[in-house]
Amino acid sequence: MRLRDLQVPAEEIRSWAEYLMPAGFREGIGVRLTTSDGRYLGILSLYTEVPAHPTDAAREILAALSTTMADALDPLRSISAAAGLVDRAAGGVLLCRDGRTEALPGLPDHPMLAGGSRLLDVAARQLGETAHSTFLCPFDADGDHRHLRVTVLACPAIPPANVIAAVVVAPAGELSRLTRRELEVLGLLVEGCSNRRIASAFRLTERTAATHLEHILTKLHAPTRTLAAVYALRRGLYIPRALHRAV
């Protein structure tokens, strides 16, 4: 809508009377920017010193291009593109600063990504350490014990400011023949837990905990527990403590 399309004189509009007209502007137009998937981004405002512009034809052209401009300016565009690079992505959401979730353009919802879930709590905690992280989450479907790979991508500090990360889930992929318990043990190992603390967490004897670690080192071809932890952290080959089964 142009200034002359309004039913109110410019002198009675504070922004025009106090700022725009003294700056030399005599006409302007506001274009609503809505993305092709229906998300409102804001208003694009254009001002001119010539009262005859923008013309009716220019107004129609801007209206026709508004969706294209919105898609080009969409701050979620790069986030969606990055999320789309996750291999075999099965679903994703945008995680907001207040814990809410929003749809991630290009990916469907997933039941494990419902607002307030433990998985999203873990994902939010991962953000304080790195801009990108990946870990495993148990997922029991139809009585079949499986795992999902969770990828957390921190969002840059651009609007919408309430979005802090994209969280994407995908099939776990190859797990080096590690069992769920061994993946849980790795979750404590990457935290730096000792054998005693690992044993206490799972109500095991220290000898049983040590046996789990021996199996892990063998399967990962890691000579030390430190290298096993580094490997697991880099590959996302562990289940964080908050997602462990009840002992």
Automatic annotation (TrEMBL):
Gene3D superfamilies: Winged helix-like DNA-binding domain superfamily/Winged helix DNA-binding domain. CDD domains: LuxR_C_like. GO terms for biological process: regulation of DNA-templated transcription. GO terms for molecular function: DNA binding. Pfam families: GerE. PANTHER family: DNA-BINDING TRANSCRIPTIONAL ACTIVATOR DEVR_DOSR (PTHR44688). This is HTH luxR-type domain-containing protein. The lineage of its organism: Bacteria, Bacillati, Actinomycetota, Actinomycetes, Micromonosporales.
